[in-house]
UniProtKB/TrEMBL annotation:
InterPro entries, per the entry: S04_transporter_CS, SLC26A/SulP_dom, SLC26A/SulP_fam, STAS_dom, STAS_dom_sf
Name the record gives this protein: STAS domain-containing protein
GO molecular function annotations of the record: secondary active sulfate transmembrane transporter activity
Membrane topology designation: Multi-pass membrane protein
UniProt KW Membrane keyword: yes
Key words, A-Z: Membrane, Transmembrane, Transmembrane helix
Amino acid sequence: MEAQNRWVSTLRSCFPILTWLPGYNLTWLKMDVIAGLTVGLTAVPQALAYAEVAGLPVQFGLYSAFMGGFIYCIFGTSKDITLGPTAIMSLLCSSFIGGDPVFAVVLTLLCGIIQTAMALLRLGFLLDFISYPVIKGFTCAAAVTIGFGQVKCPLEMSLQTLDHNRLFFKNSVISLFWSASWVGDVVLGLSCLLFLLMLTFMKKSLSSIDDDASFLVRSARGLVWSLATVRNALVVIAATAVAYSAEVTGNHIFTLTGKTARGLPPFQAPPLSETTANGTMISFSEIAKDLGGGLAVIPLMGVLESIAIAKAFGSKNNYRIDANQELFAIGLTNILGSFVSAYPVTGSFGRTAVNSQTGVCTPAGGIITSVLVLLSLAFLMPLFFFIPKASLAAVIIMAVSPLLEYGVPMHIWRVKKLDLLPFAVTFLFSFWEVQYGIVAGVTVSALMLFHILARPKVKVSDDRVVVLEFDSGLSFPSSEHFSKLVYKHTLHASPARSLVLDCSQISSIDFTVIHELAELMKQLESRGAELVFSHLKPSVLQVLLLADLPSFKHTDTVDEALQLLTSTTHTTVNHSSDGQSQERTLML
């Protein structure tokens, strides 16, 4: 029976769908359908817009938006999260694929393989080395870069996504004045932005309405909330209707998305090579080499973004997620996504928030969203020809604006000023190359961490016998620092002083430290002094006993160690004239 329970537990951990599917009911189905449709109406216009950010034809955004719903329903552990193209992932991909769909698909396949391998090898802990200031520095820089990349859209003949690897403030401003004559795109783009802003603020203001209001007020509130939730779809539909009306009357005043591939993407093995227009064959190894650092940055950032979102909503809605299972679900989504010409995907914060707010009960809501995307691909692609690029630019700008959190630097400054360094480095370097920003931020954070390891804070008590108490562990980076402290406070004193090492904060010890301790104990013994350990944890005590250190002594407390070291000390007590005792210690 116990073996059977373990087997069932293992099966459920591998296939989380088994934890909720047996109890699925009509109430859950109703809520999942509502949430899935709502998210789908948000996902379709966003997918079209994010494909532009990635430098790909718009249909590739939809190709990337449906596989996650099916895979995550089976393997995901969060009821709220939705997988698909995002602004940050699109920006990262644009840095490596150069607008080439073949490179995008190969990148998706390799990212999926890397993420799945990390899940199987339990390497999710690597994400812990990307600190919060680094993440916030990158997302703020990404918001600025993407936003400036779209400013030109309503003001030029075509949506020309800026080179997201450089900061072209100057070029953006010049083009702003150079192309301001394109009144149609300007007016439409600004109108879409204003409409999105209005609905966003209206939705936020709904929280101030009293729940005890009349039926009419509550009905109006529900209508406004519903419209505000699907505001992206409303804006794109309205803008498309306006553009279509202008086109059929012969007024070509808007820059349109143009011709798109029709129908569903074929399910086929991802291309592992490419033949260019001039007949040059690019092999798989050459593609992988050209992708370079993207094979490290994109898988890690994709997983980091998704798991962070899943944890946030899990905490909000009182459930826990399995980070390694999330890693596996994302990796498998990308692997299978490469068979339908998708580019790398991750969790979307905006769509996940919509999913949660509309009351989704299980990951099955993602299936409804995916079906809606597939229906759009099957029947609506001809209509996408008339979608104005200015409306898609407005959707992108509104989607990335929450990423620019102005209060983060001040909050970091109040908590720990030094953490502004990795934030600033990541933020600034991301305008040069986005992957360099992440690498630079992680490097600075790692150096700060290494400094803490190599120079831990030590409390020194010096009263005839020196007591050293580390506020963190003692490992090989700090062994030299430890030796210098011992020489300074004991061996360089005249006469040499004995030492008590308070190990209450030391949970592990390595061979380098053992070797250094052996040398120090020999030096102390030759000078007539001793080293006594106190507060040793069982694991550390075991290692020290196996090391066979010379004259090894240990006590349970520091006081006992001090008594042990002063047992050879003769103490006489004199009474002062005022009746108080004075202690005088003489070393024998």
